[in-house]
């Protein structure tokens, strides 16, 4: 496969602006002419190897910042938005979407915001009980979607919060471990910690200065909830400063995001970045070994692996997703080129849906997306008991995966046919934007393709995709 040329004009301009340099000064430091730099910044020329090396040597830049990243996510999100039925007659070439994402990312995000506002308005009108009596007619993203997009475009890595959690964990050993350190931190603030028979996981009484943790919860969940409360109290100023930077549109979004940041702190304290990254490498990313080593759950470990994107010290780019029994995505993040559908469920051919059939077992899958990128995917159910008879069981399945080029670093890739093209199952993102013409699990036709209906013949589908 030929080497793909790197067009990163928008990123170059962002770097130059961040360094507060003129085009002339930037070109001089990179050792290129001013016209050449101008052409690269406008994506008329690819970024040369010389420039990449100069960025690393002259500015100490992590050159992986020049990779597609946000651009690929924007392309995927725009393709899905353009697949909306209201835009059926609109056909935008993929090349145009990539140019927009690379050269005008702000315009791309504005388009996505506009489409999200349209969907919000459409859903509001479709629901009579919600439409009646509603006084604020302003269309905006739902708080949940706004927070999800915040983490999505931060690569699910929040540096200040991650480092604060790592600092907190650095003294845990001398206090008897991270769980004991969390309890000590809370008790130091005058808070009484008790493990009681409550149905909720955590209940903090600010007035009475008492924290109740459910004795029914698993030990790793109890520890996580203790650390979450530490984050809300001890790192409140840091969380608030991060929220100020994010500039959420509603108080509801800000409140949801604060819990999200506290959850992030808890996971990062339970599995400190440097130690966790090193151990993950040494164990070849064995989730069970990592869970035992850090006293975490399989889901917590998988989610943490997807956040290891610290500049200059990155882990393997993983995707992570959690689905319920209906196939609805309840958590999602991707540091890879694989992007998940923003609306609806995941591809039915993906092994994550089969994980419910084999509780307690890991399922491995070699998969290929329509763009030709190959992945190794790991799936497992993570159903959660209520802790006593009659309590509801929450049933979920998770998937964790990466591009096949990282397979050697995963114990789960051992003895799989990585060199056999036939071993890779075809998967997609969403049926509406999937380009495959012969998928036996397709639920709806692709909106960007012409259909042929033959009343005298019937194949796997009642139509042929042109």
TrEMBL record:
Single GO MF annotation: DNA-binding transcription factor activity
InterPro entries: Cro/C1-type_HTH, HTH_RamB, IrrE_HExxH, Lambda_DNA-bd_dom_sf, ScfR_C, TransReg_Diox_bact_type
Domain HTH cro/C1-type, chain residue ranges per copy: 12-66
A Pfam cross-reference name: HTH_3
GO CC, any one term: cytosol
Domain of life: Bacteria
Alphabetical keyword list: DNA-binding, Transcription, Transcription regulation
Presence of the UniProt keyword DNA-binding in the record: yes
Family, per entry: Belongs to the short-chain fatty acyl-CoA assimilation regulator (ScfR) family.
Protein name as annotated: HTH cro/C1-type domain-containing protein
